[in-house]
Amino acid sequence: MTSYLDCNATTPIRPEVLDGMLPWLREGYGNPSSVYALGQRARAAVERAREQVAAVLSAADASEILFTSCGTESDALAVAGAAWQAHDESKGRRRKIVTSAIEHEAVLAQAGQLRRRGFEVLEGGCGLDGVVGVAEFASLIDGETAVVSVMHSNNETGVLQPVAEIASAARAAGALIHTDAVQSLGKIRVDAKSLGADLIAVSGHKVNAPKGVGALWVRRGVRLAPLIAGRQEKNRRGGTENVASIVGFGIACELAGRELASASAHALALRRRIEAGVLLVSGARLNGHAERRLPNTSHFSFEGLDGHHLVVALDLEGICVSSGPACTSGASAASHVLTAMGVPPALAAGSLRVSVGWGSTDADVDRLLAAIPKAVEKLRAAAIAA
Amino acid sequence: MKRRVLVAMSGGVDSSLAAALVAERGDEAVGVTMKLLSRGETGFGCCGSPADVDDAKRVCERLGIAHYVSDMADIFASKVIRPYLDAYLGGTTPNPCVECNRSLKFGHLLALAEAWGCAAVATGHYARVVNGRLLKALDLAKDQSYFLYSLNARALCRAEFPVGGLSKEEVRAKARALGLKTADKTESMETCFVPGRDVRGFIAQSAGADAPGLASGPIRDREGRELGRHTGLASYTVGQRSGLGLHGPEPRFVVRLDPAENAVIVGGADEVWSRGLVAGTLTWAGGAPCGPLRAEVRIRHRHAPSPASIEPLPDKTVKVVFDAPQRAPAPGQAAVFYSGDEVLGGGTILRGEDA
Questions:
Q1: In this structure, what CATH number is given to the domain that contains residue A226?
Q2: How many domains does chain A have?
Q3: Does the beta-carbon distance from B116 to A306 stay under 8 Å?
Q4: Predicted complex ipTM
Q5: What is the model's pTM?
Q6: A210 with A130, same domain?
Q7: Pairing with A232, which of A146, A273, B92, B257 sits 20 to 30 Å away (CA)?
Q8: Do A119 and A233 reside in the same domain of the chain?
């Protein structure tokens, strides 16, 4: 019996989602671009999903949704696509990318690629509370900025970022503004209309849809240089549509939109219990802003132990949590997010992220709260013994 | 009663089969690969290099057991690499495997294992533990008990060597039969953190090209006559013949390294034999002896243990006197005391003694 409390890494597929997908893995195998009815039905399914994703993001029109293979691809297309488009349209004048030091690897790695191809990449920092500084961003953005990318909420700490304020600064300078909302979708409201962004990246497997599907909301009129050339997705992203997963993503978005209030209240109630319990452990602290956070995410540091070893100890008890983002597990390098926040390396090394979601229960929390104090005590003793 | 056993997995065939044997007998095996070098230094096939981690992971998947990576680069640097460098810079010949077994596998990892609720730590070493006593492997040609003398009584209570009763051929055959991808993997014989056995290169990279052990100096005979120049003490070990660049009528051997004078002292073939030695930093499996004892003493890996009298000295060292002189006990290497198959204890050779 597993207690899964790592919903920021991925989420279980909901049965409604799987049920909705199965016909498209069986008899509905048509290519959405085909002329005959089998293809037309697949096309209709994809377009229905597009509407569902558009609705959860309050997009003005379903045509603003572009399907991709994952959140990372959505981020890459947004950052690189916008950067090259703005660069070319401005005849090379717009040659800067402004982003934050706490972005997901998807954005930072893409920005790194663009740096090697001549773009200047500027990174805004954040405070100890994990919130990026609006004033600093405003000072980094100018007439040479091609694209600004700042995440909607941080995947490690769950801290919400002032995207709307930064978007104003970007718009004033004529730069495009992208936000990685992969962790926010389904947890808090992501509103394309009021956010003021031009691009929003989301991912299926963080909202109880399968892995292998993501989406990018592209404000109508915004043009992107494609990463994968091809006719699909209105020439913006080539490749035959992943019909079943797109359908699943659509259903998951509809559920997420409909259940946002209850899901968020459920998560918050569990999170409060988790934090109250864990912070009783001596030498434990909560990282990031106390209030301005996703309702489902808690990020702790424990003095005197390696967070990775705590994750192993909890796994051996049947509890899934993480010490850093799933992508970098295994190496005990301090997280770039905690480093940017100014968390001392010794504390950053003893990190634990707990993220609840659909399917998380009070029993899971009971189990976690029973296991953590013992595991922490034993690991500290081991660190001293060695 | 099912026990949880941590298996230290390097990604080689021996530890792969150790994990398989623990799982096969019905215990809960938990595979752990220690990451011993920080990113950037890996990639030359050492313990915890990405390819070895992958091999260990594939084996655990095949066995259906959990596998984790534990980053121990910092502690490996301070407990193994640093003393290794210090030894070479101080004119002795280090034995890093002894320190790794003491401080990493049966130090830090054992402590972690206890925190993780594991009853034992198993490794792929060729040795045996019976009732808390450390014994040579059944396959004497593969015996690694020499590198394990540094395990204290507490560690020996928790240590398991599942392949210690098998020959290498049996290990490979069984690994093949189980479909483990490491079954025919080549064995690494070099110091795991020194790429290509290039000790000088490693010292230069870690301690600087001007490190004392790399500085040229005189080669002298016992009477102090300079016979040539050496390329740095780190390139020499007591008993060594090659690499001296001497062209005299008789072969010359390294008799002693003199770090104070940065000199290599050489002598004839008969001068590298010692009647005895003094060893310190002792470990006794069953507690320190209260008086002199008889044992067979091994002074390097693959050396045939030789009968000797061991006399504990007041300064926590021992004086070992061999029944018959032994060739070239090298300061820094281990002297391990056996009674038949059993390891009684051992220590680090401080100096050889003529009488």
A1: 3.40.640.10
A2: 2
A3: no
A4: 0.86
A5: 0.91
A6: yes
A7: A146
A8: yes
Chain A interface residues (partner B, CB cutoff 8 A): 306, 308-309, 312-313, 315-316, 330-333, 375, 378-379, 381-383, 385-386
B170-202 pLDDT, tens digit each: 999 999 999 999 999 988 777 888 877 788 888
Q: Which of A316, A331, A378 sits opposite B35 (nearest CB)?
A: A331
Domain end position, chosen among A238, A258, A278: A258
- B112 vs A386: CB contact, 8 Å cut-off? yes
Query: Per the CB < 8 Å rule, is A379 touching B70?
Result: no
Residue at which a domain ends, from A258, A291, A316: A258
Helix H, strand E, coil C: the string for chain B is CCCEEEEECCCCHHHHHHHHHHHHCCCEEEEEEEECCCCCCCCCCCCCCHHHHHHHHHHHHHHCCEEEEEECHHHHHHHHHHHHHHHHHCCCCCCHHHHHHHHHHHHHHHHHHHHCCCCEEECCCCEEEECCEEEECCCHHHCCHHHHCCCCHHHHHHEECCCCCCCHHHHHHHHHHCCCCCCCCCCCCCCCCCHHHCHHHHHHHHHCCCCHHHCCEEEEECCCCEEEEECCHHHCCCCCCCCCCCCCCCCCEEEEEECCCCEEEEECHHHHEEEEEEEEEEEECCCCCCCCEEEEEECCCCCCCEEEEEEECCCCCEEEEEEEEEECCCCCCEEEEEECCEEEEEEEEEEEECC
Residue A252 and residue A271 share a domain: no
| CA distance to partner chain B, nearest, from residue A283 (Å) | 18
| Residue in chain A lying closest to B75 (CA) | A386
B103 vs A contacts (CB less than 8 Å): 386
Residue numbers of the domain that contains A366: 3-10+260-385
User: Could you say which of A331, A332, A382 has the minimum Cβ distance to residue B114?
Assistant: A382
Shortest Cα distance, chain B CAs vs residue A310, angstroms: 9
Q: Do A313 and B75 touch (CB under 8 A)?
A: no
CA-to-CA distance for B280 and B345, rounded, in angstroms? Answer: 11
Asked whether residue A245 falls in the same domain as residue A268, the answer is no
As given in the structure block, the two tokens for residue A374 are 């013992």
Q: Which are the contacts of B55, defined by CB distance < 8 A and separation ≥ 6?
A: B11, B12, B16, B181, B182, B185
What residues of A are annotated to the active site? 327
Catalytic residues of B: 100, 192
Q: Write out chain B residues lying below 8 Å of A386, CB-based.
A: 75, 103, 107-108, 110-112
Residues A199 and A70 reside in one and the same domain = yes
Residues A174 and A287 in one domain: no
Whether A53 and A104 map to the same domain: the answer is yes
Q: Which residues of B touch A331 (CB under 8 A)?
A: 35, 39, 69, 71
For A305, which residue in chain B has the nearest alpha carbon?
B112
Report the CATH number that the domain containing residue A370 is assigned in CATH. 3.90.1150.10
Residue type, B2: K
* Strand ranges inside A223-344, DSSP E: 284-286, 297-302, 319-320
Give residue-wise pLDDT tens across range B318-339: 999 999 999 999 999 999 999 9
Flag the least confident range among A59-63, A262-266, B74-78: B74-78
Contact A353/A298 with Cβ under 8 angstroms? yes
Domain annotation for chain B: domains and CATH numbers: 4-196 (3.40.50.620), 215-267 (2.30.30.280), 273-353 (2.40.30.10)
| Same-domain check for residues A115 and A218 | yes
B30-49 pLDDT, tens digit per residue, is: 999 998 887 655 444 455 57
Give A366→chain B minimum CA distance, Å: 20
